Amino acid sequence: MLKLTKKADYGLMALKYLAEHPETVALSAKDVADAYGIPAQLLAKILQLMTKHGLLRSHAGMNGGYSLARDARQISAYEVILAIDGPFFITSCTKGTKSCELTPSCTIKEPLARVNDTIAGVLKSISIQDLAEHEQPANRAREGHGLVALTL
Amino acid sequence: MLKLTKKADYGLMALKYLAEHPETVALSAKDVADAYGIPAQLLAKILQLMTKHGLLRSHAGMNGGYSLARDARQISAYEVILAIDGPFFITSCTKGTKSCELTPSCTIKEPLARVNDTIAGVLKSISIQDLAEHEQPANRAREGHGLVALTL
DNA sequence: GAAATGCCGACAGAATCGGTCGTATACTGA
DNA sequence: TCAGTATACGACCGATTCTGTCGGCATTTC
Q1: Is the confidence at residue B99, as pLDDT, over 50?
Q2: Are residues B81 and A112 in contact, defined by beta-carbon separation less than 8 angstroms?
Q3: Do B135 and A38 touch (CB under 8 A)?
Q4: Mean pLDDT of B30-56
Q5: Which pLDDT score is estimated for B84?
Q6: If you average pLDDT over residues A13-29, what whole number do you get?
C-alpha cells in the first residue's frame, strides 16, 4: 500500500496548525483536535510522541499545551513520520535486526533499499513550513524545489 | 510505515526470477515458490493477479506456467505494485472516490500528493530488468540513473 | 485546593494481511 | 480418451496492526 498511517497524518496536520499560529504561546491537544475533528485523546498521544522526539515542547497546567520545539523550517516530514510510525522500510524484510530468512530471496531488496533512501530523501526535503505555506494552491508555482537523484 | 506488502515483494521477486530465466518457456508458480521459499498457493494468486493486469502470460496444462508478457525492461516496479496492492496513496484520505470528510483538514494532503507522485515516478523508473541486473552488488557503479525532480 | 492540562499504560473493536483449502477449468501427452 | 499437471477463483481463518477509548496519575496555574 505504501501509505502513511492516520497517526502520521494527524501529526503532520497538528504541526502545520501550530506553524500557522506562531503568535499563540501554546495550543492544547484539544484545541488542535477540535480544529480538525480529530479524536482528542488520540491526538494527545501523538503530540506526546512528538514531544518525546524533540519536535514539540509541552507545558502542563492551565493554559498549557504544545509549541514547536524548533522553527517550522527545521522540522521535516521525515522526522514526524519517524517519530510517530517508527523507522520505515519499503521492503518487508528490513535489513536491520533480522534479515530475510528465505535463502537467496532478498536479492530484490538491495535495489529497493535505494528506492527507500530516495523516498526518505524526499520526505526530509519537506518541512512543516512547506506544508503550512501551501494553504492556498495559488502560490504553487514557487521556485523552491528539491532535486533527488536516484542512481540505479 | 510506508512499506510494501509481502505480496508485492513476492511479485517483484517472481518477476525478477522470470527475467533471469529467459531461456525457459514458462515457469510454474511452484517452481518460483520453491526457488524462494514462498508459499506456493499464495504466490499462485499473486501471479494470477499480475496475469490479469497484463504483466504475465499464463499457460495451463502440463509444462505450463508463466512467462513475462513483455520485455523485462518494459515492466516497471510501479505496475507490479499497482497490480498487486492496488492504487496506493501516501495519504490516508485518498483524494479519489471519497475525499476527506474532516472539515478543512486535508490542507496537508495537497503537498503530500506531490510526494506521492514523486514516489510513483521513482517506482515507474525502475524496471524488472533493473532488479535482475543487480544480482551482484559488484556492478553497482553503473551510469544509468533516473533523475526525479520534486517541485514544492 | 481545584481546574486544566500533559503523561502513560492497558485495552477493545475494526481493518488489513498472510496464508490455506477446496474446487473448477484448461491443456498436454501418452 | 484419460490421467496428470497446471492455472483460476472464491471462501475462509488466524495473526497482526491500526484506530480509538478509558482510567489513573503528574504538573502547573489560578
Answers
A1: no
A2: no
A3: no
A4: 96
A5: 95
A6: 94
pLDDT of residue A144: 39
**CA of B136: which chain A residue's CA is closest?**
A107
Specify if B151 maps to a domain.
no
A7 closest-nt by C1' vs CA? D19
pLDDT of residue A86: 86
Residue–nucleotide distance: A67 CA to D26 C1' (Å): 20
Does residue B19 sit within a domain? yes
* CATH code, domain carrying A85: 1.10.10.10
Are A151 and B145 inside 8 Å of each other by CB? yes
Task: State the nearest residue by CA to the C1' of C29.
Answer: B62
Burial class (CB in 10 A: 0-12, 13-18, 19+), B81: buried
Q: Which residue range(s) make up the domain with A23?
A: 6-140
Furthest C-alpha separation in chain A: 59
Strand partners, B24: none
Question: In this structure, is residue A24 part of a structural domain?
Answer: yes
Interface membership of B16 toward A (CB under 8 Å):
yes
Q: Pick the residue from chain A with its C-alpha nearest to B83.
A: A1
- Residue B145: pLDDT band by 50, 70, 90 thresholds? very low
Tens digits of per-residue pLDDT, B59-73?
A: 999 999 999 999 999
Q: Which nucleotides of D are covered by protein (CB under 7 A)?
A: 4-10, 17-23, 26-30
Within a domain: B67 = yes
Residue type, A3: K
Kindly identify which residue of chain A lies nearest to residue B138, measuring between CA atoms. A110
For residue B110, pLDDT over 80 is answered with no
Got the DSSP string for B24-79?
Answer: SS-B-HHHHHHHHT--HHHHHHHHHHHHHTTSEEEE-STT-EEEESS-GGG-BHHH
Q: Report pLDDT for A142.
A: 38
Query: With 0-12 CB in 10 A as exposed, 13-18 as middle and 19+ as buried, what is B139?
Result: exposed
Work out how many domains chain B is built from and give that number: 1
